[in-house]
């Protein structure tokens, strides 16, 4: 099933997982998926290491198993930076052969030491390539707090609209901790003519201090005052911070659902217990027919 069709019937609740590291046993991901199976998500997406990282082959197998073993729709991520067209074709052929219908087309982060050469410069190039050669549903990334490389918020929206015009059917946001940035972004996207493209809000429960430092460095996201106060109060106590991070995510999701978000994409960080606790708290709030009623 194409993920973009699910929005026609309901508000979407989806999950993201990442494949185990190359030196870890593949079976650990199936323990995570067993733990996530009670949630009944609308789909699960599987990340893919940019630049052909060693564990990238695992993405396709896991995405395929999510469908065949768990009966849940899946999305395989595909960052194009450093890939030749031939390599992208081989990966996409493999996805098709393994029954994957949904691909999250990305550029990937440019490594600090070198700009890899390949057949694609931006995610939009990959989206065009997929659209021209495959009958797949295409997802793309978007950034409520603006992509760190963008010259301006207007430029960012302009390039997002370009991705949509190239063929992106469904958007998922970068994580954010202040819902106001999502509402303002959603409005700008609608003004720019993207009101018919579903936008899922990406929510990451922040459950440890190292994770927060990494996120700020990597994604340049804003830490709102309310979040900083949580950190100051509970940051020294790992159990309290985990509980506070879960409570914060539940609060964000509750507000997003009340404001009619098209969907929630939970970055699980492969922690099934955290995902379950969040789902238990919000599942009765997810309307069954929000977009068609
Ligand atoms: P692009 O859409 O190419 O945008 C990158 C920058 O270029 C932006 O500033 C944009 O405004 C600008 N731009 C876009 N198109 C053009 C154009 N045609 N001309 C000029 N400028 C342009 N990374 C991974 O490696 N693996 C993953 O699995 C992964 N999953 C992700 C999932 C989600 C939901 C998100 C939000 C991000 C994910 N990322 C992943 C990170 C992503 O690869 C990085 O954020 C990367 O820096 C940008 O990717 P993009 O697809 O948004 O790039």
What does this structure look like?
The protein has 293 residues and is an alpha/beta fold. β6, α7 (179-194) and β7 (199-203) form a beta-alpha-beta unit. It has helices at residues 3-6, 27-36, 56-70, 85-97, 123-133, 153-166, 179-194, 209-219, 225-234, 238-258, 272-282, and strands at residues 12-17, 43-46, 73-79, 102-106, 137-142, 170-173, 199-203, 263-267. An eight-stranded parallel β-barrel has the order 1-2-3-4-5-6-7-8, surrounded by four helices. It has one domain: TIM Barrel (Alpha-Beta Barrel). The longest helix has 21 residues, at 238-258. It has eleven helices and eight strands. Residues 47-48, 50, 77, 79, 104, 106-109, 122-124, 141, 147, 149-150, 155-156, 159, 162-163, 172, 174, 202 line the site of flavin-adenine dinucleotide.
* CATH third-tier fold name: TIM Barrel
Largest sheet: 8 strands, parallel, barrel
Strand content: 5-15%
- Report how far the terminal alpha carbons are from each other: 22 Å
Number of strands: 8
Bound molecules: flavin-adenine dinucleotide
Low-confidence stretches: 289-293
Mean pLDDT: 93
Radius of gyration (CA) equals 18 Å
H/E topology pattern: HEHEHEHEHEHEHEHHHEH
Question: How would you summarize this macromolecular structure in one to three sentences?
Answer:
With 293 residues, the chain is an alpha/beta fold. The protein contains 11 helices and 8 strands.
